[in-house]
Please model this.
Amino acid sequence: MTTPFLKIEGIRKEYGPVVAVQDVNLEVERGEFLTFLGPSGSGKSTTLYILAGFDNPTRGDIKLNGKTLLATPSQKRNIGMVFQRYTLFPHLSVGDNIAFPLKVRRLPKHQIDAKVKEMLRLVRLEGFEDRKPAQMSGGQQQRVALARALAYDPPVLLMDEPLSALDKKLREEIQHEIRRIHQQTEVTILYVTHDQEEALRLSDRIAVFSKGVIDQIGTGPELYANPATRFVAQFIGDSDFLPCQMLHSANGRATVSVGGAVFSDVPLHETGKSEGAALMLRPERLSLTREPLQQRLAATVSDITFLGNNVHVATSTLSGDPLSVRLPFGHPAISGLSRGDSVWLGFEAASAHVFN
Amino acid sequence: MLLNFERLGWLKYVLLGITLLTALFLLLPIIFIAALSFGSSQWLIFPPPGWTLKWYSDLLADPRWLSSAWTSFRIAAIVTVLSVLLGLVTSFGLVRGRFLFRKTLRALFLTPMILPVVVLAVALYAFFLKIGLNGTMTGFVISHLVLALPFSILSISNALERFDKSIEDAAVLCGASPLEAKIRVTLPAISHGIFSAAIFSFLTSWDEVVVAIFMSSPTLQTLPVKVWATLRQDLTPVVAAASTLLILLTVILMALFALVRKGLKS
Model:
């Protein structure tokens, strides 16, 4: 077995009585774009800060190419980082900001100048060398920060919600830039965000953080199609949960009963928590009919929202649980549909999940 | 805006009048002393019967005035350097440190600002009498440092608080040692705070008289003490000339301060 490029082994971080990171294990391949996705307080940023060396773990180890990183201070780790807040050095010009890590490394001047030029080209900010950070927009500042972090060819680039201060349109624009730069430089990126769309758009793999542990690691489609926990199901894509009754289970499949209807062969996930069985349904995987049919859930329309190419129908099942359906605009089943109408919702067993 | 000056009608003339009166109230004594320093009367008569530069030439010809000015300058310069250095390390401790009674300690550092100066002067006098520092340069510097340090700590820690530590962290990840990051990134970024600390420290020492009276000896006098002593002995317009020069230097320093601050901000 080859040694993994970057390995996080059983990291735990306690701040007094507070456990910020419980037990994080992770292997990252060289050149991979891996995102830490999770709500605030889930331990994703703390893990990143431990990687950067700003914090030491209470327990566990981080290995880069098989060698521990923990003994190396931040300034010698050679890791690049782009922060959530704007961290350009305010008194230095854009060019001097990018040159800073190279000057600290005492590289010869011609090499520094060449590298600064190359980096400015990489982030498409040629001609901005002499600007001061205060004269630039937030998006431009983050691109300079990216250039500065990549100037010394770090093996790993950490990004801590670098786009959270930008508006949506600019965010998408810079997401494209980050993807292009990742492909161009082949640097290994660890990216922290709480925005699932951003994670899906950017990453090769996503590690979903919840309460100080990684719930699941996988590609976007894997997490969407096969969520390991209720939390992952909620965080990747939209989903509703209906309390259900387990009738039978075998080989990872379950037969459940909801509101009088019985569904068999539904993928089953044993979570080991005693929250009771729940059937997870995704709004875009449901079909809707106006006439009662076998093997369908009866529901009442509570709201209809037009979302451009989609129409979002909010319904309420007979037991009062909310259940959403998303249908393409102009779908025959929703023409003339109005609030209070009775509808019947169906789904393919393979697209649903039971969490027990 | 809640109060629009243009829409105040006749009230704005009242406001203008009040503003002018306030400005006069603040400026008149200064104008008065400056006028007297050019007046030909030996008895500080106002308005002066004629104009002369005699008092300035008297002032500059008297080595005692010059030596006290030089003493003042040296003390103020040393106090400035020490106050900025101590203020810097203290501010880092107060702003970045995570220890018990941090806020209490910060308040303690600012007490010389609110303590009556004369109380402080008596205390320092009594203490220095015991350890033999009265009438020495060291005694002067230490006692003025006590007065200057709160201003220094206040302006530097304010600047440091507004500085995002992530910027320093970024410099460290770029490969700079924590000390190098502070010197190359943090200090330039808070230079306006350091600069205010320096100016206010200098001015605090430069025109301080109460503590200086207690500290001075016949051979070691600062300019304000010399002014005060001369006033008590004989009421000569040379005092007005000295005061005018004191004011002039202060005004120059403040103007410089405003200019550099503007430069640092842009």
Chain A touches chain B at residues 52-54, 74-81, 83-91, 100-101, 104-105, 145, 148-149, 152 (CB under 8 Å). The longest strand of chain A covers residues 18-28. The helical segments of chain A are 44-52, 94-104, 109-122, 138-150, 168-185, 196-202, 220-225, 230-235.
